[in-house]
């Protein structure tokens, strides 16, 4: 068996010691940066801030908007109860609940009727819209001449696009906003878009001392991997680099997360998001959800309506879009318990953070999203050049991805 040259052995030992030193240094650095006792920004998101906000709900009027399709299990297991508790804590004079259901195949309607009853018992004002029209009904009808939201797909069919369909559902949930202002002069301070919920609503509400265009939670289905990659963009507009901590490619977003601060991003959704309501009341162009144009989608591009709304929001550049890592929601009980461990322990261990930091570092050294960016950029330019006399602009270019989504009878599909 060959024996290594003593000089080579010494070099290898030095390299090993140096790497070990870096690991120890990183571990100490992460422990220091994430320590609540040293981080006033983290303390501002603590239980103390939660309590202070919760004691003065009358200072905030909250419009809760939500859309549902085949959600019976989640509604009955915890969602309804959480909404009832939140509405009760805000008080009937400070909250309005607007829910849209769209042709579910399970008994989502029955679960929402139960919610309607209990909200009524609390005298909570609400609109709960139930539709018998299923996805199958939507895709089987013949679109009208020039109707938007339909596209010729590679399958040789004219099919219903997913994002404009979802945008209409979300905008339907916002209809009471204008009606309440017009009829009784009632306006809301914040809009809470809600897919899932946890006990940290007031912490999210207090993000950045309550000043933001939007504030989002982190959502999980199979921790430690977070869930919503479609709408999340870091401070430089990149998609998440990895689904585990520390998630982000951009230095500003990543460093904020490592410190335990709220994280500046260009877009987020993550199942629970609060937005300043002001742009939704604009008399000239009220902020609403949308998809990219059908002609741009023909370039085999798509963008989430939950990303595009931040691109369109005039407050995004002024007040910022923030992800609050101290607010974590989940799609099932097991995931929720994982990201909310007992005895106030950290939900992610120091070892996971250390490994994540090194994985992030290596990924930034050896990968980039240049190829993905170029693909989107060239297709965007092709679309802009299609009609030279027409000025084509897409404000949400950072939302675009190389995909095409259509509605099918049991959900949606890539084509």
TrEMBL record:
This protein's record includes keyword Repeat: no
Listed GO MF terms: glycosyltransferase activity
This protein's UniProt keywords: Glycosyltransferase, Membrane, Transferase, Transmembrane, Transmembrane helix
Transmembrane segments: 12-32
Name of this protein: Cryptococcal mannosyltransferase 1-domain-containing protein
Native organism: Talaromyces proteolyticus
Higher taxonomy: Eukaryota, Fungi, Dikarya, Ascomycota, Pezizomycotina
